[in-house]
Design goal:
By secondary structure, the chain is α+β, with helices and mostly antiparallel strands. The protein has helices at about 5-15, 35-45, 55-60, 60-75, 80-90, 205-210, 210-215, 225-235, 240-250, 265-295, 305-320, 335-345, 360-380, 380-395, 400-415, 415-430, 430-435, 440-450, 460-465, 475-480, 500-560, and strands at about 95-100, 115-120, 125-130, 140-145, 175-180, 185-190, 200, 485, 490. The strands form two sheets. Strands 1, 2, 3, 4, 5, 6 and 7 form a seven-stranded antiparallel beta sheet that branches. A two-stranded antiparallel sheet has the order 8-9. A hairpin with a 4-residue loop joins strand 8 (about 485) and strand 9.
Length: about 575
């Protein structure tokens, strides 16, 4: 059965988690209380410092598809580009399934989540669960992930054209499947081609193809960011159109923001493809998962939060990927890595965002928000988590802005086609968001950064961004400036917020002087207050000694009968 037909069949019934959602009746467990959620946080593999409360490792390995795509694109040949395209469209690592032909129609109904057990070519047990209700000979079984594994050990899909596929964990090319129903075993003979019929239900292309149904026309849709992009480009599959046009070496067919790749050779097209896959397709689907988590959050139902938490975990897994591992230190291939790469160029690393190495402030701030959002969902604080999601979306745009600024600066000084391509794809990944708040700023950025732009002015691009930061709920300090590590200063005209080095020096000097002045004033006030307090204490002491003396005199007079106590002392 062709993969595209399978994808269409699966969309309506299983859409929600990933390009295609795990079936709703395949339970991930129910979060019943904080003790249970705490146990879960310890049970699942950490993702760059984040502790998921559900199993999302198979979701995070979409970055392995991206890694192979990039590897093929780097070869800069037509055949390698076709290999990369095959993986983009058909996957290879995430949500692997087998498309088996049964020897006869099953005598009993098959439902989503039904478990089947077979063997691989070495006679080892392989497990798979049915995708959907079925009464025909074609049986789709999603491979089960064993404990400790990140993903199913059957990895074929689009990898079949590269020769690096792995069928060791796949069902053998023919054999018998067993299934238990009410304690009774049923046997199903089958056959299939392990190279052609092992596919993947989650692909980078799928994130774009499913945007219409999963972010624009679904219940509680449209989601805001998806609508910005669909309205700007005139199509919900803008990401796929951009990437396919780059593969085809042709022009896109958008309403606005078009790009003509016909004059680009392999290297610049490769940049447009690999960054488009992450910054357009993956980016928007990360937001989709968080939006879905909000929709599944039910304040008054303690047993209804499982889907919400799972979707939230999926959003984090897709933002980060598996290659970042538990602490986020290794190099990844998705958005987390782009943020870390750019912080070293803009001096926005570390918690304070003022270092040139380490984890980006964007990622550290996002990690805190990821944790906060998960905790809010578990506690059923549904309105609060909506605000958290908004902050996440705002921060996610910062590395894209940095990508535009970086390449506009390089392009103005060097004018290389690869820099033009990178600037164009980063711009394409944020232009709709800019257009939604300031059409003129978006036009300025597009005209300077589009494919085959006549000229590029870094100052014009920088100032266009400066004009919309407030509307994007970020500030220029978060974006930073282009940092020259060797010189230990910002590049000319590329300081944070557009200030020159002289202006920055003046600002720093004023801040230092203001701090010193405030410190001096505080010291004077403190000492004056201390002096007044001491004066008061001494005055009180003198008054007390005088009072005692007067009292003694009065008592003496009273005792001698010379005088009576009057009201003077009182």
């Amino acid at each position: 059965m062709p993969f595209t037909a399978v994808l269409m069949l699966l969309c309506a019934a299983t859409l929600s988690s990933g390009a295609i959602r795990p079936l709703s009746n395949v339970s991930h467990g129910t979060i019943l209380n904080f003790e249970e959620s705490s146990r879960r946080l310890r049970a699942f593999r950490a993702i760059a410092g984040y502790r998921p409360a559900s199993s999302v490792s198979d979701y995070s390995v979409i970055d392995l598809d991206q890694a192979v795509i990039e590897s093929e694109l780097e070869k800069e040949t037509d055949s390698a580009f076709e290999n990369a395209r095959n993986i983009y469209e058909n996957g290879g690592h995430s949500r692997s399934y087998a498309d088996l032909l049964l020897g006869e129609n099953p005598h009993t109904a098959i439902y989503p989540g039904d478990l089947f057990i077979g063997k691989n070519e070495n006679g080892e047990e392989v497990r798979g669960k049915s995708f959907r209700s079925q009464h025909f000979r074609w049986l789709l079984l999603e491979y089960e992930i064993t404990d400790g594994d990140k993903y199913a050990k059957c990895q074929v899909g689009g990898l079949n054209s590269t020769g690096i596929y792995d069928t060791r964990g796949c069902f053998a090319k023919s054999g018998n499947l067993s299934r238990v129903i009410d304690g009774e075993y049923f046997i199903y003979p089958y056959t299939y081609d392990p190279i052609l019929d092992n596919q993947n239900a989650r692909t980078i292309q799928g994130f774009s193809l499913l945007l219409q149904s999963s972010m624009l026309t679904c219940a509680k849709c449209p989601y805001p960011d998806a609508k910005y992009f669909a309205d700007y480009y005139g199509t919900p599959t803008y990401g796929n159109e951009w990437i396919e046009a780059a593969y085809d070496k042709r022009a896109t067919s958008f309403e606005r923001g078009n790009a003509d790749f016909s004059q680009y050779d392999h290297a610049p097209r490769a940049e447009c493809i690999k960054k488009g896959a992450v910054c357009m397709n993956v980016f928007m689907y990360v937001l989709r998962e968080f939006e879905d988590a909000l929709n599944d959050c039910v304040p008054d139902c303690s047993d209804c939060m499982d889907d919400s938490v799972h979707n939230w975990d999926e959003g984090v897994a897709l933002y980060t990927g598996s290659l970042e591992e538990a602490d986020g230190a290794p190099d990844g291939k998705l958005l987390h890595q782009i943020a870390d790469d750019h912080c070293t160029l803009f001096k926005t690393c570390s918690r304070k965002g003022n270092q040139e190495d380490g984890t980006s402030k964007v990622n550290l701030d996002l990690l805190a928000l990821f944790d906060m959002g998960q905790d809010q969902i578990i506690k059923r604080q549904c309105e609060a988590v909506r605000e958290t999601k908004k902050k996440i979306a705002d921060l996610m745009y910062i590395p894209l802005i940095q990508g535009v600024l970086l390449n506009s600066y390089r392009l103005e000084s060097e004018g290389l086609q690869v820099e033009e391509a990178m600037g164009a794809v980063f711009s394409a990944s944020i232009l709709p968001r800019i257009h939604a708040v300031n059409e003129q700023a978006a036009k300025t950025i597009y005209n300077n950064m589009r494919v085959n732009a006549r000229s590029t002015s870094y100052i014009s691009v920088r100032d266009a961004f400066l004009s919309v930061y407030k509307d994007l709920n970020i500030d220029c300090g978060q974006v930073g400036g282009l940092w020259d590590k060797s010189a230990g200063e910002y590049y000319k005209d590329a300081s944070p917020c557009g200030e020159t080095s002289k202006q920055l020096a003046i600002i720093i000097l004023i801040a230092a002087l203001a701090s010193a002045i405030f410190g001096l004033i505080a010291t004077i006030i403190y000492n004056r207050g201390k002096g007044l307090s001491l004066s008061g204490e001494m005055s009180g002491k003198f008054r007390s000694e005088r009072s005692v003396r007067i009292m003694n005199e009065k008592i003496v007079r009273f005792s001698d009968g010379k005088d009576e106590i009057d009201n003077t002392f009182a």
